[in-house]
From TrEMBL:
Entries under Pfam families matching the protein: PAS_4
Name of the protein: Diguanylate cyclase
Gene3D superfamilies named among the record's database cross-references: PAS domain (3.30.450.20)
Domain annotation PAC: ranges: 189-238
UniProt feature coiled coil, ranges: none
Length: 238
């Protein structure tokens, strides 16, 4: 599924560039490939909770993008309902019918006690955090970026999916610093370090970066969760 998200993100970037250049013919040619990609993403069966989240977030993105087109919103909402039923419908009661207190609801098969089970991706929490949060796959590509991190990189969240980290921090910094820390995280280590970054006005700011292994329901590390905290902002607030 990640390859499909990557292809969609690349196509969107290409279309935006063609629009910027005023190349209407290229825009039309590229646009013909968008709908098949959308259909492929929606038809793909997620194999873990992370992919479920990304697929549902993608539909939410489509609904937001087509908010002025009621027919499209209705269609996307139907797809969202289908996906929710497909992934979770068999494991809980209908939301319209109160569940009897004495009926035990079995958790989904992917649920594993005492593990995170994807709760770190609670959109309500992550998308309101002032800290920058990102999820990287084991090939160092973005799988998720919260609004704070996306704004820092001057990108929309969907534009980051599938993009390599080195595109944004540079090949040198990636090779000399980020890669070996991420590799250690992929090996199961918790990484916590601080670094300086430019504030864009000739000064610098201290940033704390924490990396945590992202595991699937079976315990296999499938990526890393990164939280970047602006230490100067915290000290100023104090």
């Amino acid at each position: 599924m990640l390859e499909l998200f990557r292809a969609f993100s690349l196509r969107c970037v290409q279309i935006e560039e063609a629009i910027r250049l005023g190349d209407d013919q290229r825009v039309t040619a590229l646009d013909r490939h968008v709908e098949p990609l959308v259909e492929a993403i929606l038809a793909c069966r997620a194999v873990n909770l992370l992919e479920v989240y990304m697929q549902l977030q993608f539909v939410s993105h489509l609904i937001s993008q087509d908010a002025d087109d009621s027919a499209s919103v209705t269609e996307h909402t139907s797809v969202l309902s289908y996906l929710l039923d497909s992934y979770f419908g068999a494991h809980g009661p209908d939301w319209r019918v109160p569940s009897p207190q004495d009926v035990r609801i079995e958790p989904p098969p992917a649920y594993v006690p005492d593990t995170d089970n994807g709760q770190f991706l609670n959109a309500v929490i992550l998308e309101s955090l002032p800290d920058r949060v990102a999820v990287l796959t084991r090939d160092y590509r973005y799988l998720y970026s919260n609004p704070a991190n996306s704004a820092h990189l001057n990108r929309k969240p969907m534009e980051l999916i599938g993009r390599h980290l080195s595109e944004f921090i540079g090949e040198e910094r990636f090779a000399e610093c980020a890669k070996h820390k991420l590799d250690a995280c992929f090996a199961g280590d918790q990484i916590d370090y601080s670094y300086e970054r430019s504030d864009g006005s000739g000064g610098s700011r201290q940033v704390r970066c924490r990396m945590s292994p992202l595991r699937d329901a079976g315990g296999t590390v499938i990526g890393a969760v990164l939280v970047m905290e602006d230490l100067d902002r915290l000290s100023q607030a104090a």
